[in-house]
Amino acid sequence: TYKCVASSGDREAEATVNLKIYQKITFTNVPSPQEFTEGDNAIIVCDVISSPPPTVLWKYKGAKIQFEKDVRFRTLNNNHLQIQGIRKTDDGVYTCEGRIKARGEVDFRSIKVVVNVLPTIRIRQAETNATADMGFSTLLACDADGFPEPMVAWARNNVPLESGDKYSFNEDGSEMTILDVTKLDEGDYTCIAKNKAGESEQELSLKVFVQPKITYLESQTTTEMDEQVTLTCEATGDPTPTITWSVGTRVFTEGEQASWTRPEQHKSPDGDVLVRSDARVSSLTLKYAQYTDAGEYLCTARNAIGETAQPVYLEVRYAPKILGSVTVYTWEGNPANISCEVLAHPSDVSITWQRDGFQLPNANTSNIKIYNTPSASYLEVNAESQSDFGNYNCSASNEIGTESKEFIVIPADVPSAPSITQVQPYSSTAQVLFEEPESTGGVPVLKYRAEWRAVGRGKGVQRVYEVKDGLSSVTVTGLKPETDYEVKMSAINGKGEGDSSQSVVFKTEHVREPSPPILEGTLQPKGNSLKVKWTKQDDGGSPITHYLVRYKAVNSDWKPEIHLPNVSEYVMLIGLEWDTEYDVFVVAENQQGKSKPGTLTFRTSSEPAATTGNHHPSLPPPLLPSLLLCVHPRRRLLHSSVPSALSVIAAFALIDQDVSKEPIVEVRTEEEATANHDAEGHPEPNETTPLTEPEQVTETAATVLDLPLSVPTNSDTVTDTFDLSQSSPVSESTTLTSSITAPPSDPPNPFHMTPPNSSTPKSHTKPSISSTPSPDPANVTLLVDLGDSPEPQAEVPPVVPSEEPVPVPPSPHSVVQPDVVSSKVTENELESPEKILDEKSTTELKNVMPGTGAEPNTLTQTNATESKA
């Protein structure tokens, strides 16, 4: 209060003035930012003074806080704002506003409130598995959340882990890699996350498995028939491994393997082997070990992580064991080897031979020789008389003991007769099934001889078959349809030829249509080309005139039918659609009709990425719709082949406009003579019998060629495989080697030979009906009755319209067409290996004695225990 006094003379006056000074709104303590931990009861400080005291209002994000709506918020007496259980969502900018209504004064301060969140840890995998001692690393990871972003650290047994040779961490420390894990790394690890709000931690477990490891294994030595010997194997690993013993393919344990908490004993059926497993140790005990028990034994330890195996060796020392059969068969003049093969350990063995108490050789045994090796001794006895047959003694000794064995040399005999069990006739061939002789004479059967002839005729044919792969059937060939034949067989060993079997009579079938050919497809390297090869089957007794080939993509129309000569052996389909399934039919036709089709289904490869079209790599696009007909320059096509070839050309001339999609068909013709169905030596083919064995041409008009498509040359040895499942007289599982010669039975038809220098096909000249063979019946060989003479044929026009010649595969042989057969038989013909039999020639090769044509050197035989030194 202020007083004002005024005086004038004796007069005085005064007045009182009350002065009030009001303080403006002043914020004395308003810190920003203010930080709190989530969940705390937070008090936001805002100290404000004024005169008169101000009214304080609180705002959040510019809006007045409605205390009645959220009871967590309230204003304290000192105007501070309290938030009970503050949340992360409560952080932000708060406004502390002071007001003096009487003066209309307003002032405020903004306060940034930060709510820190305690870290939380998320474990990706509470327990991690790892394998020790494999050089592997394993990863432990924990993801920490919180505000501010927490830092992650790792510890084990309260010891912090640092980055180094053993541990490495990623940038925020959430991932720890343990390098080169070992069993010592197994245990618990702690993940620790820290920030301003505090610290959290979580434990992770590492389980380390260990592959089995064999820690102890020792080889043993024993002497045969000792009481027992034990092999021991120890192994470690986690999980604890089980241990098994084996030798070769034999496993000594049976049933469930031994558990380490429940040891088991496993005993072999014979009681000589005992297996015991306990506490990571397994033992294998052999009682009264024999020499056959010696060798490598395998100890195998395995658990869920893996397995390991190590060999251990059992050495058995034993006296010599003499092996082999005691009987040896031979005949006078034929050297025989007696093999005294010895097993012994130690292998330092002394071997001696004796006979009748006298050591061999001696002064009285000039026909005996001995050959020694470290493990065997061979006694060669050249039996000169009956006295050389009998007993011979072999003795072998080492430091363990001695063993002797008597060997007996027995005179060999010729084999007994085989037994013909069945004859399966066909039109021009027959399959003869037989059983082996009951007695081989002591030495192996080397060959079988088959003799056959038409019933009521004095002459016949014979063929000798080499024994290979369990020969149980042979094929007789060159038969006439609907004719009665008789066949018999004999066996031949080194001693000679045995008696013949009883003759079996059979009748060939009538002429019929061929059996379906067997197809074999080979996808070519390009992927959209296929080589379709066929194997001729039974021709039904009538020559196959041609083949018919059809093919199509599945769900598409058939391509034009292709007529191919009877000498064709395959078709090459080129430029097919990619990744497409195709059907191929091949039909053989003779004068009796068509066979059922041989079928083949295949799929082309997927189109390569670099391929832009279906053009053949070696041909320009205009030449794609072409037929490649390969014919030997000196080979004349049959009269039935020309129109077939022309029809192929015509079929491919009528091709679509889009020639790039039309496949090329390449046809190969086989260079063989036309089948002569009255000729001898006509084996029946099956799916494994090739048709590519052409006859070698002898440049003389007198040479008689009478081989069908699949007949080997008379001078060669061939292997025929036959299949009883086909309509063919031969079996697939029978492999034989045969040598055949043709008999001079009836006068032959003459044939014209194609000139050797001819380079283009020539037309045939039809033989005159009045032409007759040589009147000399003794020199005439009737091989075939050609009912249909070939007609003249026109020259085949060029197939591919190009200046470049059509590629023709080189011919392995030059073959002539047997249209006309010479009426003269040369001396060379009569030397053919197939014998023409008459009544005086049926005793050949029987009772052959050494040195009189049997060739002892080539006929010397030994059984399974014989071997020549």
What does this structure look like?
The protein is mainly β and 869 residues long. The chain folds into six domains: 26-115, Immunoglobulins (Immunoglobulin-like, Sandwich); 124-210, Immunoglobulins (Immunoglobulin-like); 225-316, Immunoglobulin-like (Sandwich); 324-411, Sandwich (Immunoglobulin-like); 419-507, Immunoglobulins (Immunoglobulin-like); 511-833, Immunoglobulin-like (Sandwich), CATH 2.60.40.10. Strands 13, 15, 16, 19, 20, 22, 25, 26 and 27 form a nine-stranded mixed beta sheet that branches. Strands 4, 7, 8, 11, 12, 14, 17 and 18 form an eight-stranded mixed beta sheet that branches. The model is unreliable at 254-265, 611-664 and 667-869 (pLDDT under 50).
What key phrases describe this protein's structure?
single chain; 869 residues; mainly beta; Immunoglobulin-like; nine-stranded mixed beta sheet; eight-stranded mixed beta sheet; 3 helices; 57 strands; elongated; Cell_Adh-Cytoskel_Orgn; disulfide bond; glycoprotein; immunoglobulin domain; membrane
